[in-house]
Specification:
There is one protein chain. The protein is of the alpha/beta class and about 450 residues long. The chain has 2 domains: about 90 residues, no CATH class; about 325 residues, LigB-like (Protocatechuate 4,5-dioxygenase, Chain B), CATH 3.40.830.10. Helix 6 packs across helix 8. About 50% of the residues are buried.
């Protein structure tokens, strides 16, 4: 890069880290175009913060001299720029070639590969089945999967998308109810798009691979949905390539229904409500949003199949790792649970507007990860009621994620049971506090 070049950092996640008593900021890419994680010490962070596409290398040298009273050598600055570029963190011709190659491989693939197998969960079928079975029988789980059908049929579930080893028992609560109370053979899976995308919704027609066999994508339902919606639902299909929020549901679904019946899925990523909140707009200000929500509800109602909707979502993301000033202590955990449960009351009431207002009233200070899929779920469901099965927190003083499992039934179904009372999450926090990097890369930072 020449001295007059203007290096520009790509939209990536940045979060504080500490190792060996030294603090820094780590960079990683939620879109998965690079697996690298770069840790910047404070002085280097100060330099890279000026990689905004407006400062030339000469400008950066001048700012550095003013701030620190020493010369930043051109060779050193060029080396920093090359390193960032080589690892895929800069907007550049090098990155454009990298991105095109990765996207071309995805477009050419007949299926959507299991991107997180062997990392977030076991890659071998037997090991994965044992891993998932243990979540049901875990002390915080609901008991063994399956069992006799009870209560009325459900129309939807809400489950987490946090790492299995952190939220597995909470997933199990939702999927045990799905096994016991749903005879659906088509599952519309709504997922969070952590990396963001150009369109508010993205569909893929690629079957989702899992170590337990594929979760095949339906063909008739997406065609009917596309016809009602009008716009291209595949234009942001590439967002499915490394996003885990739907992949984790596909894995659990394959396990839960392995010996029951065949099924198909309709995987839809959503990203619009966080953007609306940030821009001070109404949730459906973008005309594509209400058009899609109406089309989805109509397609579900008109389908000849037995349809169940699954939302793969997490809730709050708070603490210094997400940009808050102070570590999270017991009193904040307790307050967080109260705030989350108030929001979940709106969710259980299947009231999309009340859900939006419960988040918007404080500018989404909890950074609810799952805004768009939850809102979509509530808008597309028929009148009915939800039931909270399990609320949980995975706490660390530096970063806390909360999540829950709910089921939904239509009017005329079984009466909802009372929402479980608050748990001693502060006590759980003390027992489970860890110092590891507790959440998936794509869940850190933005909290969509």
């Amino acid at each position: 890069m020449t001295p007059t070049g203007r290096p520009k950092l790509r939209p990536v996640e940045a979060f504080p880290v500490e190792a060996g008593g030294k603090k820094g900021v780590a960079l990683r890419d939620p879109a998965g175009f690079t697996d690298s994680v770069l840790v910047l010490p404070p002085l280097l962070l100060d330099i890279v913060s000026l990689f905004d596409g407006e400062h030339t290398l000469l400008d950066i040298q001048e700012v550095f001299m003013r701030r620190h009273g020493e010369l930043l050598l051109t060779e050193r600055l060029a080396e920093i720029s090359r390193t960032l570029d080589e690892h895929g963190f800069l907007e550049s011709e090098t990155f454009a070639r990298r991105r095109e190659a990765i996207e071309a491989r995805f477009r050419a693939s007949p299926t959507r590969p299991a991107a997180h197998a062997g990392g977030a969960y076991a890659a071998e079928p037997e090991a994965l089945s044992a891993q998932l079975a243990a979540f049901f029988t875990h002390p915080e789980g609901p008991g063994a999967a399956g069992g006799d059908r009870r209560d009325g049929p459900i129309t939807a579930i809400m489950a987490p998308h946090i790492d299995f080893h952190r939220g597995g028992p909470t997933y199990a609560w939702a999927y045990r109810e799905l096994v016991n109370r749903s005879d659906a053979d088509l599952f519309v899976i709504l997922g969070t798009c952590h990396a963001g995308m150009a369109d508010p919704f993205a569909l893929t027609l690629k079957d989702y691979e899992t170590p337990l066999g594929p979760a095949p994508v339906d063909r008739e339902f997406p065609a009917a949905l596309q016809q009602r919606y009008g716009d291209d639902l595949l234009s942001s299909e590439g967002a499915h390539r490394s996003e885990h929020s739907i992949e984790f549901q596909a894995v659990f679904l394959r396990y839960a229904l392995a010996e029951r019946h065949d099924f198909t899925i309709v995987p839809i990523l959503a990203s619009f409500l966080h953007e609306s909140l940030a821009g001070g707009r109404e949730p459906e200000a973008d005309p594509r949003v209400p058009r899609f929500l109406d089309a989805l509800g109509e397609t579900i109602a008109a389908s000849r199949r037995r349809v169940c909707v699954i939302a793969g979502v997490d809730l709050a993301h708070v603490g210094p790792r997400f940009g808050d000033a102070e570590p999270v202590g017991p009193s904040r955990l307790a307050a967080l649970e109260r705030e989350d449960r108030a929001t979940l009351e709106a969710v259980a009431a299947v009231d999309a507007r009340a859900f939006y207002e419960s988040v918007a009233k404080d500018g989404d200070s909890r950074r609810i990860c799952g805004l768009s899929p939850i809102y979509t779920l509530l808008r597309c469901l028929p009148a009915g009621r939800g039931r909270l099965l399990r609320y949980a927190q995975w706490p660390d003083p530096q970063a806390v994620v909360t999540f829950a499992s709910l089921t939904f039934c239509s009017e005329g179904g079984s009466a909802p049971l009372p929402i479980p009372p608050p748990t001693d999450c502060a006590g759980e926090a003390r027992a489970r506090t860890t110092a590891d990097s507790y959440h998936r890369a794509s869940d850190l930072g933005r909290g969509r």
